[in-house]
Specification:
With 411 residues, this protein is an alpha+beta fold. It is built from 17 helices and 13 strands.
């Protein structure tokens, strides 16, 4: 069960104070006790449901007590600037917010577990949606009114019971740093830290026997998880500890993940086959990792007289129907592997060439869901429709052309 949000805001002084010393002692691993293992740390750090922070220490200034990303950014300026450009900061965008208007509290909390995991965020959203367990009092000063819409904020990973946690420092740490310093854990550089949201359990939602979120295990099965030259999630998605989390929405990141070649094969009698070979050389998981993105390979014939003819399209991705009940196809490419995409066609005797254009549709599954939902807009709550339209516009705007290559006969 979620914590009783009715009591969350107006009983801050008693919610965690009786158990706060014990909680902080368990979490910190400081003093004479050895630091907890990564597994032990993560089991407490990502406890479900995440408890509220409780009353801040009396020595904390309002800035130290605040859960706002901008408060953290007073010192961590580079991290804040990078986070603002990341998908983590957009985890509560219109694509989720319109759906929350159709959900009850239990359904909503299943999404908020990763999209807005702080208890304080859930309380604010319960107030917004009029859910039955919403608090009856306004939030305390250290909870900004808009925190529920901020997505995966700094505190979601770094703050528990108002205590800060982070990776081992790279240099000396001053003795007088704010918020009483921080507790060090190597878990922040371990792929298991990310698995809390990027790996469903065995009994989680699945289609055709495949978990809908399976990225961590895809990585475990990849060459990148091997101890020799091991590359973690953070190695690629947080290079040099940058809070970027770039993925398939980013052309540069996507281009580094794959090698693509195009060859033509004459079959006789004016018949040919274009073969595009795509190798997943840089992603430490399937390319793409789950059902939402698609990568489209469009084949065109360019004739010497200026004519352009589309020969066909192939798709890299895991395609399921919009109700998420049936797999249509799965052409994803595991880490380190390659797949051929073959397109037969006919061509005249005159000069011509084939051009392959690879386009990325980062939100293709959502595009279909949003369009289907808009076709039934009259059945939706009125407040959901503008958000739904914005979500579709943002999904379409995320499309981009990744590359184009060409080949002629004999190449």
């Amino acid at each position: 069960m979620e914590p009783d949000l009715n009591r969350l805001f107006h009983t801050w002084q008693t919610w965690l104070l009786p158990t706060l010393p014990l909680l902080l002692g368990l979490l910190s691993g400081c003093g004479e006790k050895p630091a907890p293992t990564v597994e032990a740390f993560l089991s407490r750090h990502w406890i479900e449901p995440m408890p509220p922070q409780g009353a801040p220490p009396a020595t904390f200034s309002p800035l130290e007590a605040s859960l706002s990303p901008e408060a953290c950014g007073q010192c961590h300026t580079e991290q804040l600037a990078a986070w603002r450009t990341s998908l983590h900061s957009k985890a509560m965008g219109p694509g989720l917010r319109w759906q929350l208007k159709l959900m009850d509290q239990d359904q909503g909390n299943r999404c908020l577990r990763c999209h807005a995991p702080l208890a304080e965020q859930k309380a604010l959203l319960a107030l917004e949606h009029g859910w039955p367990n919403a608090p009856q009092q306004p939030p305390p000063d250290y909870v900004e009114a808009g925190l529920g819409h901020r997505g995966l904020v700094c505190a979601a990973c770094h703050v528990r019971g108002h205590q800060r946690f982070g990776p081992p420092p790279r240099g000396e740490v001053a003795a007088d740093i704010p918020h009483g310093g921080f507790t060090v854990s190597t878990a922040f550089g371990d792929s298991r830290f990310c698995a809390h949201c990027h790996q469903f359990p065995d009994d989680g939602p699945s289609i055709a026997g495949k978990l809908m979120e399976d990225t961590y295990r895809q990585w475990l099965a990849s060459p990148y998880a091997k101890e020799k030259n091991k590359q973690t999630c953070q190695s690629c998605h947080m290079p040099d500890r940058q809070h970027l989390w770039r993925g398939i929405h980013d052309p540069e990141m996507t281009r580094r993940a794959i090698d693509v070649s195009l060859k033509l094969h004459a079959l006789g009698d004016g018949r040919y086959e274009a073969r595009a070979n795509v190798r997943n050389r840089g992603a430490g998981h399937h390319f793409p990792t789950y059902m939402v993105p698609k990568v489209e390979l469009a084949f065109y014939r360019y004739d010497a007289d200026g004519g352009i003819f589309e020969l066909g399209r192939q798709v890299i991705g895991w395609n399921v129907d919009t109700p998420i009940t049936r797999e249509i196809f799965d052409t994803r490419i595991p880490a380190g592997e390659a797949r051929d995409f073959r397109q037969p066609f006919t061509a005249p005797d005159s000069d011509w060439r084939v051009v392959l254009i690879m386009r990325v549709l980062p939100a293709e599954h959502y595009e279909r869901v949003y369009r289907d939902s808009l076709s039934r807009a009259h059945e939706l709550p009125a407040a959901a429709v503008p958000l739904l339209r914005r979500a579709l516009a943002e999904a379409v705007a995320a499309r981009y052309e990744l590359l184009r290559i060409e080949a002629g006969v004999g190449q």
